[in-house]
């Protein structure tokens, strides 16, 4: 399990490209992330339809008859119409009040009512990330979670600077690709699927070169591998104190403990649609005073425009001070939904929230073990609490089990780590599905998995 | 009115910076767009509050008592709660059905139902942009409209290539700044506030240098100046046929005629929250086959990651072919709202929509003239049809008239063009406020303007 220090050699890419046909995108460009990401469609389940097999997007019908989708309601007492329960590792099921906030009437993005809402949202993020240091700086931008990578790569790294990426799966590979686009000199410490680089290897790498920045994917959504942060951060502060510690928290913020100040993290980037429980469309991040200072000490201008901290920092500071300010128009509706979601989160102690996610995760992981199945994340200490990636029995295909679950109104996701994509499925358990026992989502999903596997002919050996 | 060919010399910036206090952002960075944009807060009205004067964000109260905001309903028969009518040049008032689509229950971003919705949305955009050329490529990304500038600058221009920006106001300056961040060698043909570069000047500029790309802001939201596109495009094709023609259509798409194929445009970038009538949060664009070919012929990789056409082109093509595909998670709720908005738009002939916007605009402009007031856009042929920028009488302050309008439940915006910001107000008239006569928004706003000016002591000379 010794991770290989590599510069992102992607041996399998020619195969991917062959299956996709001749590339029409520029050949000279690097890093060559598009075909790989493209082919690695999440295959989050096409209910009652054939599922794509890995590295093909060509086999799906070009027209989909959505009237065939299941319509049965899965729970009562909701303002939402009947729909299958979405238990993929994001987007997750959303609370009624959060969805209703999405329909907020139109407001000026610089009017006092919206400015107050945005300002409160930014202040609440400080509590979610557990930072009371006034030098910490939150950002909320319209964009996918991926935009957070650009925010880090275009502002905290200058061309030619060394970056160490801890490789725990598909998403750390993506972060590495992004850093390279903006000129980062990336070393990726890669672990085999289902594990992560270990502290001794990381210490060795840090002692060999002076890295401007280290990135760690807290939970790699491709594998469900959890990277412990407290000891990692302590190691970095001891061995390479000038290295900024940047966490990809897309699949961890609001379901895994993150003590931003206590662990002296320098940046956590995340998205709205996972454990925070707000529809997709927002890149949400927090940076330390030290990270902001590193940005201010740049010798070259930020390498992006929309993702430039130069353009956004004062805007965020003004919104938080309830002063109108403009760089680009934010989405009042999404900010309202995030505001509602954060109010719900902060109405209870965060420790309770993390404990409830752990409790549900333990129950799911026990059920998986009771079924005689293994997780992709093999080490119990490295298993996420908001999702579970489950190896299928050899006799059961993804293309059988996912539609079987769909018929039971439960939507799981297929695999996405390219070395093992067909061999496992992903079960997301974050937010209201875990916190609202009246929904019964988790028990129903476990039952559906048990029944579905039985229908596929699987019996525990 | 001969525009000055300049390289974006911003003489007023030291003043801006002084008013904002010492810069905490890096000094070496260029272009220095942040302080300018920051200071130019839209001042879209703080109902019943003092409005910021230009170049200050410091005078607003740090705490806003939103209970003081007007609560009266402005129209009946809506599912929206009472709220002031938003008549700024975006975001606009939204239709009930569009807002309801924002609350759509959670769906997998790669599930067949959402893939079908996204695919239909992309196909409908072809109709909105009036392109039937299959080589044309639509993009819909999570982000502000500003992200469209990055899409152009990071993909269609390589470092050191020459770009001609037609400068008609604040937003063309912004596009120029963005192009420079990605290495474009920008020449901005600047016109005085309220006008635009004229064809002879443009012809002269095009004949002096070979430009990779020309940008034109169809309607500059800062001034309401409309740049005619048909003759401009014909000129470019005649004088400099290899130059790509890129249109900033943020304040024009869906309210001004744009014949993408007929005029042989190469790119139009826009946002969701203006005349398209969908809440903010989406960057929407269309590029010609020729533009996509120029992208494919790049010698260097795209200069951004989230805004990279390399990462998104196949994804958009797959969604449109109803095949699931993944690069970064789109926002299913925003895409549903855009789908609803586009269905509404395309249910009637586009020509009728443009005519209704022109009719309302004519009525507003006549009312403005009848009041003895002048528009910022002085030439009637250069006046936008979705907004009107109105010079205030010398005796009336922005800080008096905007709150007076707010008390009448009408929200206008302040000025934003930095040379004249305090001297004018902006009235947005796009989408349902123009198309749904039952709302009575336009007549009520005209009446509010008349009454408000009278209350401020103004009488026509």
From TrEMBL, chains A, B:
Signal peptide: none annotated. GO terms for molecular function: alanine-glyoxylate transaminase activity; L-serine-pyruvate transaminase activity. GO terms for biological process: glycine biosynthetic process, by transamination of glyoxylate. Its EC number is 2.6.1.44. Pfam families: Aminotran_5 (PF00266). Gene3D superfamilies: Aspartate Aminotransferase, domain 1 (3.90.1150.10), Type I PLP-dependent aspartate aminotransferase-like (Major domain) (3.40.640.10). Keywords: Aminotransferase, Pyridoxal phosphate, Transferase. SUPFAM superfamilies: PLP-dependent transferases. GO terms for cellular component: peroxisome. Belongs to the class-V pyridoxal-phosphate-dependent aminotransferase family. This is alanine--glyoxylate transaminase.
